[in-house]
Amino acid sequence: MHKRYNVGEPLEDDALKSMIWDYLGLTRIYTKRKGQPPDLAEPVVLSAIRKGTSVKSLCQNVSTQMLRDFNFAMVWGKSAKHSPQRCGVNHPLADEDVVQIVTKTNKQQQNDKNYQAMVQGFSDKYHKKKLEAKKKKQGKLRR
User: Which strands, in side-by-side order, build the sheet including 85-87?
Assistant: First the structure.
């Protein structure tokens, strides 16, 4: 037996929205900066179907650089055994968890084995872009 919903009725809209969120496997995760209260106005919405609902998928959703520089996460909410809980990238998140991502310090990044290659890659990219801009400027001056 199927239930019909009268869209526009506040109670039925909430029930319908809840069913849709459950069906799609959507999870709201709130972010928090160090020393500040959590941002409860705009959650990051993760999907169990697409990228998953782990700390790693949260970092990928926000920034790939954040995942590269990830040190640990502090988690408050249903998925934490105690509040706050210090977690790694594979920690599964629950709906309405609050997460604070702590990235590596500069010294920790410098001790990383891939640090030199990463710095060289950024330097090469910067100098290539600068050379292209210089050639473009010279091309405009010759015309």
Answer: 39-47, 26-31, 97-103, 70-76, 85-87
